[in-house]
Predict the structure.
Amino acid sequence: MAKIIVEVMLKPEILDPQGQAVASALPRLGFTSLKAATSVRQGKRFEIEIQGDPTPTQLAEAEQAAQSLLSNPVIETYIVKVEK
Amino acid sequence: MAKIIVEVMLKPEILDPQGQAVASALPRLGFTSLKAATSVRQGKRFEIEIQGDPTPTQLAEAEQAAQSLLSNPVIETYIVKVEK
């Protein structure tokens, strides 16, 4: 059983209000060592579970799905990888 | 520059309507090889960017933040890891 993982994050130049909210909440809630964090970004993670190892066709289609269905290419980037 | 990554996913026993919507959209949109996917789950990914390597204190606080701020322990699980 393997998983095709698609990670979708906002592009670095796009403002991320959710991430900023987390970044400002962290020190306020007592996580003072994380005040040194230069940035916090929030994104999405999709796990597509496959029986056995993914075929090259499945990986290619996951890549296409990541681009057209799971992310917005105007503001987001994605990474496709496989986890066993 | 390292990143502390927090991945938050719904627990396996919790219904994931967003994941199900993706799972049913994939074959409909022509990604027929992914019809064989046994499940699609959608979760969240946080990237906390740190100058240099994270200290043990920062990692411990990220773990606590993942539990108390970034996930809902009733319905979600989380993983904390470091990416260089």
In short: The mean pLDDT of chain B is 95. The radius of gyration of chain B is 16 Å. Chain B has one domain: 2-83. The interface with chain A takes residues 1, 4, 7, 9, 19, 22, 25-26, 29, 31-34, 36-51, 55, 57-58, 61-62, 64-65, 68-70 of chain B (CB under 8 Å).
